[in-house]
Design brief:
mainly alpha; transmembrane; ABC-type transporter activity; 284 residues; membrane; elongated; ABC-type transport system, Hypothetical permease component, C-terminus; transmembrane helix
């Protein structure tokens, strides 16, 4: 449902709330970033959606605090920061970013101005990245504020919020980049349906399969699986392995270079491939 709303608002915004008849600034990327992405209704819709998803974590935080006290609350925070259901929107968001703009003619109109393809591509991705940043900040802030409200210590809460908020943002960037790759490989409903399938696979099916099948060797196996949700799950389990124990320090959180690499490297690969596809695409 969320992805379809994003698709419709994207198509409506093809008519653009800003006038494409006006000259495009020579700074290109910044002009697109401000005129298209930030003014898009899907930008605001995503931020609101993440706030709602964070609100749904309230029940689990309450439960862990009631039964296990402050240690239980702190051990739950990294898991709550993994971004429940958010990838199901982010991947389709990326999957409709390029092909919808090509199909409705927005790209052709923009490129008739003094803009290059890389300006459009980079501007669109920067705009979506900013939406992810604001959504992630809202998500993490809600969980942190509520945790402090019910009794979590401020210093430890701040530490966990910074670390796992950053990990969530890198995870969502990977989903977005994969969506951009899908957007350059296929059109319309095919891209959207593929994105929804991959979001389910990477966010639910693969992590569940790996955790249940390789529990004893989870940390070593996860290094080879490009699933952001799995990497977040593994890091969360390493930090807070027991709901009765407080999480470890930030230094120990980040002492998992293989898992961190699987959050960052696929993002760069997906972006590079999607740019190569878009650069050679027929936009007519």
């Amino acid at each position: 449902m969320g992805s379809e709303i994003f698709r419709r608002t994207e198509l409506r915004n093809a008519r653009l709330n800003v006038s494409l008849a006006a000259p495009v600034p020579s700074r290109g990327i910044t002009g697109l970033f401000l005129k298209i992405s930030v003014h898009s209704k899907r930008f605001l819709a995503f931020v609101v959606f993440t706030g709602f998803m964070a609100f749904l974590q309230k029940g689990s935080l309450d439960k862990y605090f009631t039964y296990y006290g402050i240690p239980g609350l702190l051990s739950r925070m990294p898991h709550a920061m993994c971004g429940f259901m958010v990838p199901l929107v982010v991947l389709p968001l990326g999957a409709m970013a390029v092909n919808s703009a090509v199909e409705n003619g927005t790209v052709r109109v923009l490129l008739s101005k003094p803009l290059r393809r890389r300006d459009f591509f980079a501007g669109s991705f920067l705009g979506d990245s900013l939406a992810l940043f604001l959504g992630t900040a809202l998500y993490a802030s809600f969980i942190a504020t509520y945790s402090v409200h019910i009794g979590a210590p401020v210093s430890k809460t701040f530490e966990l919020t910074i670390v796992f908020g950053a990990l969530l943002y890198f995870s969502l960037l990977q989903y977005l980049a994969l969506g951009y790759l899908l957007s350059t490989l296929s059109k319309g409903k095919v891209s959207l349906l593929t994105a929804l399938f991959l979001a389910f696979l990477l966010d639910f099916a693969v992590p569940l399969l790996i955790v249940t099948s390789w529990r004893d060797n989870l940390f070593s196996v996860a290094h080879y699986i490009p699933s952001p949700s799995l990497q977040n799950m593994v890091i969360s389990m390493a930090v807070a392995p027991n709901r009765g124990l407080p999480p470890k320090s930030v230094g120990e959180v980040l002492n998992l270079p293989g898992n961190l690499a699987m959050l960052l490297l696929p993002t760069l690969l997906y972006l590079a491939l999607s740019w190569l596809r878009f650069r050679k695409a027929d936009l007519r």
